[in-house]
Amino acid sequence: MKKNVLIIGAGGVAQVVVHKCAQHNDVLGNIHIASRTVEKCQQLVDSVREKGSLKVAGELQAHALDALDVEATKALIAKTRSQIVINVGSAFVNMSVLQACIETGAAYLDTAIHEDPSRICETPPWYANYEWKRRELCEANGITAILGIGFDPGVVNAYAALAVSDYFDSVSDIDIIDINAGSHGKYFATNFDPEINFREFTGTVWSWQNSQWVSNKMFEVKRTDDLPVVGAHTSYMTGHDEVHSLSQNLKVPNVRFWMGFGEHYINVFTVLNSLGLLSEQPVTTAEGLEVVPLKVVKAVLPDPSSLAPDYQGKTCIGDLIKGKKDGEDREIFIYNVADHAEAYQEVGSQGISYTAGVPPVAAALLIASGEWDVQKMANVEELPPKPFLKLMNEMGLPTRIRDEDGDRPLNF
Amino acid sequence: MKKNVLIIGAGGVAQVVVHKCAQHNDVLGNIHIASRTVEKCQQLVDSVREKGSLKVAGELQAHALDALDVEATKALIAKTRSQIVINVGSAFVNMSVLQACIETGAAYLDTAIHEDPSRICETPPWYANYEWKRRELCEANGITAILGIGFDPGVVNAYAALAVSDYFDSVSDIDIIDINAGSHGKYFATNFDPEINFREFTGTVWSWQNSQWVSNKMFEVKRTDDLPVVGAHTSYMTGHDEVHSLSQNLKVPNVRFWMGFGEHYINVFTVLNSLGLLSEQPVTTAEGLEVVPLKVVKAVLPDPSSLAPDYQGKTCIGDLIKGKKDGEDREIFIYNVADHAEAYQEVGSQGISYTAGVPPVAAALLIASGEWDVQKMANVEELPPKPFLKLMNEMGLPTRIRDEDGDRPLNF
């Protein structure tokens, strides 16, 4: 029975995490939030107090922390007596926060794969490049480390595990489709940090097909699906964390990730990328100033957290799964639809942050209850999906299924 | 009879000017070229020597000069005994170079209106904002100052003057159409300094219609014309220097300028402009670095002078003129077609630089001969057009006309 949560990061996802933790602080205990800029953490604390999100009276405090500093992170874990660390900071700090958890015995959760700031779009095997190198150490020390427990990766991995266990005798294809049919009303903006956002699309696209890695260029392969609620949308094959772990853990021969993009997004992206403005390599101006173009693009784009108040529309993210059941071909779509304005109403963030921030809090509740306190490193598809998806239903991200029997909620 | 030419600037247009001056150094005398970076000037000198462009043996020298420094410019004019100064440097130095000419008695020529670095797209009356304030001083001192003697402004002003004097009883409309139907083979590039190039299109578009100034947004008003040699092209109403001077000097009620743009150019421009990346106002990156976005865009774009070797295709620039002749409506198109590859072959520059650089040398020859040594400030339409256009025919930019009698060369 672990308790007391330390949240690392103070962006849009952290805002959701702190509100959701507050709503469950009777189980989770004390809540602490830390990032380099303590003022940002304090704003999240203030936001929780304004909305009255704390279920019961309890500690809720902001801290300054450089999460690349393992000793400082260990000290904060110890000082706050946190047994669960939810890392929703920059993807660059994963390995140092994980190390601090290993050395203090705290459970570790994150929502995205580790990245090295100097390397864009590393080649698969992604988890094996960094996190999985700590698997044995976690097991030897009885450390619970749950990797990639946002929505995608995260919930979509649980959908895949559920499909494999309950809906098929054998699965041939997992196609994860992520559509944001919402609108922020700006000329152009990214839904999270542009530096991280664009990195997903500036390199080679890797997918798992016929049980091997296949490479394509970005925007080279697309599909159009008529999806529940949001209707017909075109999505493009993209590399994504869960393609690696699902292909390894579920032994499915075809695992692909598809991200929806409008033509306008693709056009702006293509212009910026073609001109070299998304480069992380510095250029020198005529005046002799050395500048990284991507950092200038980030400076002129809207702050992603500023989008939330005016965001309208819905997201639809799910797994289209094909295989055999009782000798027959079968195809099902397990999915969630989230609403931007409802997310803002509840926790002050837009829907993209909401879908990424609710799942790690559900996982923290399952660690607190012991159900997911597995005392080893695990990707989500290695954990029992039903208790998690049951919590998702209760916490604002209900699961639905569309199959030969129609479209309906999935209850557990 | 003036002689000895000082060329200020060392870009693509200066390259054309120095080659053309060299081809006529029997008349023009000594040739000196000056810019902030003496190495660039020396490259142009070397290029003239490599091509053997000097008609007769004579002085040809490179100099370092900050043309904003009036005293230094006066000293260089005196030292080189230059009686003609061709200013093809940055548009920011016009007023200081003009002042140096006024104080030394040298004739002054430029190809574009003065600009203040801190002010984008000033409102009309453009020439009256800066240059025309020196009209009386030039006349009192007997200074010949010919403004805007490139192609547009410049040759197109002479076309307009010719039409008014020889082809119409009254002119109602002058529409100057500038089409570059060439291709540089790059994803995107500007034909001259991006900082100056984009400034033409980021502000309000001013035109002279029904004898008053009318404002529009960029890309708001367009036309499509089937033009000689280059075929059908769409052009967009743009503010331009000569709209001001022609409207004042020729008393024509409608004067408009139209610049051809492909859809790709407009798309890239629109993306960059909408995101704020063409701004001259500094932004601050997340790391605290203060940067002017436009200077970063300039740094990632190809150097305009690098385009010349691979530039293919032609330009078509001319005046579509409407009015009355002998009581009948009449419409004529006076124009030139230039070829990028031929320009590169002759002087090592692309066609845009060629059309801008040949006319000031023709004007210098007319000052040397006395025909245009008017000892006052003048825009091109105030000078006799025929000797100038006769020289244009001989120097590589022949004039043609398309009217009710067909399409043919114009000889003088």
Report on the architecture of this protein.
Two copies of one chain form a homodimer. Helices cover 36% and strands 26% of the residues of chain A. Chain A is of the alpha/beta class. Chain A has two domains: 5-151 and 349-395, 3-Layer(aba) Sandwich (Rossmann fold), CATH 3.40.50.720; 155-346 and 400-406, 2-Layer Sandwich (Dihydrodipicolinate Reductase, domain 2). Chain A has an eight-stranded mixed β-sheet. A seven-stranded parallel β-sheet of chain A has the order 3-2-1-4-5-6-17, with helices on both faces. In chain A, a hairpin with a 5-residue loop joins strand 13 (283-284) and strand 14 (290-291). In chain A, helix 1 (12-23) packs across helix 14 (351-369). The longest helix of chain A is centred in the last third of the chain and has 19 residues, at 351-369. Chain A is globular, with a radius of gyration of 20 Å. The relative contact order of chain A is 0.16. The mean pLDDT of chain A is 95. At the A-B interface, helix 11, strand 13 and helix 12 of A face helix 11, strand 13 and helix 12 of B.
Question: What can be said about this structure in brief?
Answer:
The structure is a homodimer of 412-residue chains. With 412 residues, the first copy, chain A, is of the alpha/beta class. Helix content of chain A is 36%, strand content 26%.
Largest interface: A-B, 27 and 27 residues
Strand elements of chain A, count: 19
Biggest beta sheet summary of chain A: 8 strands, mixed
- State the shape of chain A: globular
Measured distance between first and last alpha carbons of chain A: 23 Å
Protein name (chains A, B): Saccharopine dehydrogenase family protein
InterPro entries (chains A, B): NAD(P)-bd_dom_sf, Sacchrp_dh-like_C, Sacchrp_dh_NADP-bd
Pfam family, one (chains A, B): Sacchrp_dh_NADP
